[in-house]
Model the fold of this input.
Amino acid sequence: MKPYVPEYVGTVTKYVFVDSPNTTPQDIATAAYEIAQGVMIKETCFGCQITGTPEDVSRIIDHLRTLDPYRIFIKDRGFPPGDSRRCRADLGGARPGYLGHEYEMSFIRYISHGLKETQELTKASLKKAAGVALPLEEPLDADILEQLFSEEK
Amino acid sequence: MAKVFIYPATSLILSDLVERFGHEPLGSALSIREHVQTPGFDSPPIQMTAEDPQKGLKWAAVEVPSGIRGRMALYGPLVEEAEAAVIIDEPELAFGCMGCARTNELLVFMLREKEMPKLELRYPASKEEGVTFVAKIKQFLKDLEVKQ
Done:
C-alpha cells in the first residue's frame, strides 16, 4: 500500500457536448479558451472538458451556453482529464462511460427540438404539453412468448 | 434550488436539463469526484476502498454481493440527500457494462419508496415525444420551485 495523493483537489470537471450543424467542438473550445483565465480546457471530439474552480467553470459554461443554447449539453465528470485510471491513452480503447454518452447523443436532437419548442410555450400550453402521456414499452404478451418458445423447437 | 436525483445517474440529458432549469442534479459524478479527491491509501483502479462495501451495508444486506454494496456507498448518500427525483423507465444505457442491474433495481426501489416528488418517464423516440419529454421535466422542476 502507498499513500494516495489526489490531484486537482477542490476543482470540478464538466463535459460540454455539442450536436449542432452550426457549432463545432473547435468553436466551443476556442470560445472557452478566450475567457479561460488559467482554467484547464481540453478539446475533444464531442466538445470539450473544463476543469477549474466551481466559480470559474460556471462562468465559462454560462458563456458557452449562449453560443448555441439548444444544442449544447453539459454534465459533471468525477475524474479530472488525463487521469491514468480512466484516460484511454493509458487503458486503450474507448472508456465505458462513452457508450452511455453515445447512446444519449443518438437521440439528443429530439431534446434540442423539445427545448426550442418549449421555450416559446406559455404557462398553460406548457402544462398541456406536459400532460401528454409518454407511453411506456408494452410488456411482451404471454401468448407471443409461448409462440416464440414453440418456434425454437 | 432543489437537489434532484437523476436516474440513470450518469445521464447527460437529465443532468443538463435539471441544471438548465435551475436545480442541482445529483448524479454519480459527484460521489466519484469526492472519492477521487479524498486522500488516503492507493486503492486501484478507481479509488474504491475496502471501507465502501461496509458503508453500503446501510442500504444492502451483508449477503448482497460486495459490488452492489460498493455502488450503494456511492449512491446511498445521494438518495438520502435528494429532495426530488427524475427516473427514466428501463434505460438501455444502464444495462450491461454501464452498470449493475441489481444495483439499479435497488436504487429505483429506494427512490420510489422515499417520500418526495418523483417524475417517471422514458426517453423520447421522435421529435414530438422530445417536446413532451422536455415539457414534462420543465413543468416538474417548475412545480418544485413553487413547493419550496
